């Protein structure tokens, strides 16, 4: 099948941020005197938008103002923790450069908000920048719903079946399936078994490993 576009998830896929999100929840809970099972919360929320995460955290409906305030607090903690130790998933920038050199369109489809997107892209300094970015604070449901990926494809005028999603989380892999897209599993935080599916073309630890498999050379890229 022809490939026209690559859609990258952000956290855990472009940047090695998931351990810092976990630590941010720990610190958030400490400041608020809350008892949180962080691994369980991460399993229930990774790939979901900020409001959905807060609903899962509190176990009750929340107003948009409350969700926004709590999300802002937690994500500010995350950026403060991660900034001094910022790192990409190994090989990401080199791989992204190769993707664009082959004429593929590039989009980002993330449940992250504008603050986290600007933080990540500011540190990565991608040139050229992604052609479209769809965020979790734009009113779309988070993963495993396919809306974020479908909107990313729409913005770059690519048919879903001609897109490959790069994802590190089970909800994201499922969202790609529901969107009718193929996927590559980046196993930075989950095992290949946790990210398996009939639409998953490859499961690798990082982009250095993927580039060693000549993945881009193996897919059919339209030249017209």
From TrEMBL:
Keywords: Hydrolase. GO terms for molecular function: hydrolase activity. It holds the Pfam family Hydrolase. Signal peptide: none annotated. It comes from the Bacteria. It comes from Acidovorax facilis. PANTHER family: FRUCTOSE-1-PHOSPHATE PHOSPHATASE (PTHR43481), GLYCEROL-1-PHOSPHATE PHOSPHOHYDROLASE 1-RELATED (PTHR43481:SF4). This is HAD family hydrolase.
